[in-house]
Amino acid sequence: MIVPAKTYGIYYGKVKEENADTIFASIYTLSSQKHLHSFHPAEFDLIIVDEFHHAAADSYKRVLDYFKPAFLLGITATPDRNDNKDVYATCDGNVANKLDFLAAISREWLAPFNNGWEIDIEQELLQAQLRDDMAVKILSAWRDKKQTRTIDFHSFTNCAIFVTSLLQSSKIMN
């Protein structure tokens, strides 16, 4: 433990340990009004938010707008957003280090793309997606939810081709 005299708790899913000195929480759990209002806005003097590039999302904004810590630190490897929203302003410019993921890879702090482990995971994911039963579930959900037009995102081109071919085949259409 970093500070053995302190207590640590989890506030996520079914676990709600809200009386600890340090709480590790899920933004999505905490962003609901029920959970958010179980804490006083000034209850925490320090809030550290990982994946801070999501600070513009409604769930993050709800949490960040509610709490009034003495210090808010945002941590992200991807601070520059495509929508040009300034996440630095949300945390008053409190940035631990401006280091993007490519620089972190070059320093060997992150694993590079396409290393052997990642390829194995990708192959396993692809194989899981290239199953008839998975395609049937996807297409069944599509039939239940479709209204006018559909856009379908897949992890891999092969998966998109597979699902499309099954959709067009009599195996799925019947």
Explain this structure to me?
- It is a single chain.
- It is built from nine helices and five strands.
- With 174 residues, it is an alpha/beta fold.
- It folds into two domains: 8-106, Rossmann fold; 116-173.
- The strands form two sheets. It has a three-stranded mixed sheet. Strands 4-5 form a two-stranded parallel sheet.
- Strand 4 (46-50), helix 3 and strand 5 form a beta-alpha-beta unit.
- Helix 7 (132-145) packs across helix 8 (157-168).
- The radius of gyration is 22 Å and the shape is extended.
- The termini are far apart.
Mean pLDDT: 75
The CATH level-2 architecture of the largest domain is identified as 3-Layer(aba) Sandwich
The major sheet is characterized as: 3 strands, mixed
User: What is the total tally of β strands?
Assistant: 5
Shape: extended
Short summary:
41% of the residues lie in helices and 12% in strands.
What are the salient characteristics of this protein?
41% helix, 9 helices, alpha/beta, 5 strands, Rossmann fold, 174 residues, disordered C terminus
Topology (SSEs and partners):
Elements: E1 8-12, E2 15-16, E3 22-25, H1 27-30, H2 33-36, E4 46-50, H3 58-66, E5 71-75, H4 87-90, H5 101-106, H6 116-129, H7 132-145, H8 157-168, H9 170-173
Parallel strand pairs: 1-3, 4-5
Antiparallel strand pairs: 1-2
Helix pairs in contact: 7-8
